[in-house]
Input
Amino acid sequence: MAFDVNSALVQLRADATELSAQLDKIRTTIAALENLSPQSSSKSSKISIAPAASGKLRGRKPGTAGSAKAAAEAENAIAATTKTGKKGKAGKKDDFKPLPVPAEYHAGLKKTAKMAFVLNGAGELSAKDIAKRIVELEPGADEAKTAKDFGFLASRLFRSKNINARRTGKSYVYSA
Output
């Protein structure tokens, strides 16, 4: 069987052209990830693409699934970052949303409404102080259970930006 040099040379040129196109796609992807222009990423980029770095392509014909996998993953990463404009969670809760304060207190109110009623105009109160005020308004309520319930509720309302809190030592004091 004779070795045809011309057909081997044509195949190598086609492979080199395809690899060059894939390398350009990778460079464009890197440039987009670094927020650089594609022209500046060719040789002066901080990230250089060495032959050893493209080791996944060795032994495979260009255009197979394994050679295009990295480029597809990079394109997906670009699409994910450009949708939100930034990495990480989008739409954080930054706005303070105060609780509506009921006009009068009665035992049938929800816990958040009770919390709003007690904190309204009271200044800063700890979870124990809130529980004491609620026990005063509702005779017969268990103070320990009330302190536990409203301590948890106060921390949840603080995390969701419905009430304010300030750390004092190991605990917090809450305000409306």
Remarks:
- Confidence is low (pLDDT under 50) at residues 40-57, 87-91.
- The two ends are 89 Å apart (CA to CA).
- The beta strands are 125-126, 164-168, 171-175.
